[in-house]
Design a protein that fits this description.
By secondary structure, the chain is α+β, with helices and mostly antiparallel strands. Helices cover 47% and strands 19% of the residues. It has a three-stranded antiparallel β-sheet. Keywords: Cytoplasm, Elongation factor, Protein biosynthesis. This is Elongation factor Ts.
Length: 276
């Protein structure tokens, strides 16, 4: 029987994020040699990369960095929450984020093709991590936001997991405090656009038709329909438009009103939620 301990198993799992049985088999094959077992896991992992391509990545994290009028947000995904909360995966995400910042990447494709200091592409970095960790790992989304002021906010939906929601908000005027409050609001209320003008006209018209048909089905008076329809369409905007949403900390005021009172104006935002 190979000479290794439970501590060796734990150390190798933490280092590689490989499964318990995979680690045990590698240690058996390596006769307890940790370095050799790690290499075995890596080789076997490379063989499984192609097989893992079709797997679902529903776990992971979002990472962000903001400063000097620029913010970058990345979503890095894996298969299980065990890997997602591991130090190795967190370090990988930090490396991916740093590369996105340094290359000014604004989308996943350009980031994946970019070259790291060691000569590998980011895609090759992920493939190597895929092999050693034993799960499919991918960069799903990347966003870059510029403005007079840009702040970031990361939110954990569970204390046991890394950040699952990430937000960037750009503003002009005012203090970073109000921008951060708005970023926290975006994390909680998930608006889809900044202003109602950004909503597709066909979508608005569909909502208008739906509101009218619903009102008629409810037996509302014909004369009252225009006002009812307009109210329901405005409600649709209120749910989706950041500036028209009731502010999280002061629901009697809209986000736009809070910004106005702070002498600020929102110019853009991005929100990622893992797997969404």
């Amino acid at each position: 029987m190979a000479n290794y301990t439970a501590a060796d198993i734990k150390a190798l799992r933490e280092k590689t994020a490989a499964g318990m049985m995979d680690v045990k088999h590698a240690l058996d094959e390596a006769d307890g040699d940790l370095a050799a077992a790690e290499e075995i896991l890596r080789v076997k992992g490379q063989k499984g990369v192609t097989k893992r391509e079709g797997r679902t990545t529903s776990n992971g994290l979002v990472a962000a960095r903001a400063g000097d009028g620029v913010g970058t947000l990345v979503e890095v995904l894996c298969e299980t929450d065990f890997v997602a909360k591991g130090e190795r995966f967190g370090a990988l995400a930090d490396e991916v984020l740093a590369q996105a910042v340094s290359t000014r990447a604004a989308d996943a494709d350009s980031l994946l093709k970019s070259t790291l200091a060691d000569g590998r592409s980011v895609q090759e970095l992920l493939d190597d991590a895929n092999a050693t960790i034993g799960e499919k790992i991918e960069v799903k989304r990347v966003a870059r936001l510029e403005g007079e002021h840009v702040v970031s906010y990361l939110h954990k939906t569970s204390p046991d997991l890394p950040a699952q929601i990430g937000v960037l908000v750009s503003t002009t005027g005012g203090e970073d405090t109000v921008a951060r409050d708005v970023a926290m609001h975006v994390a909680a209320f998930a608006p889809s656009v900044l202003t109602r003008e950004e909503v597709d006209a066909e979508t608005v018209e569909h909502e208008r038709r739906l509101a009218e048909a619903t009102a008629k089905e409810e037996g509302k008076p014909e004369a009252a329909l225009p006002k009812i329809v307009e109210g329901r369409v405005n409600g649709f905007f209120k749910d989706r438009v950041l500036l028209e949403q009731p502010f999280a900390k002061e629901p009697k005021k809209t986000v736009a009103k809070v910004l106005e009172e702070a002498g600020a104006q929102a110019t853009g935002f991005v929100r990622f939620r893992v797997g969404a």
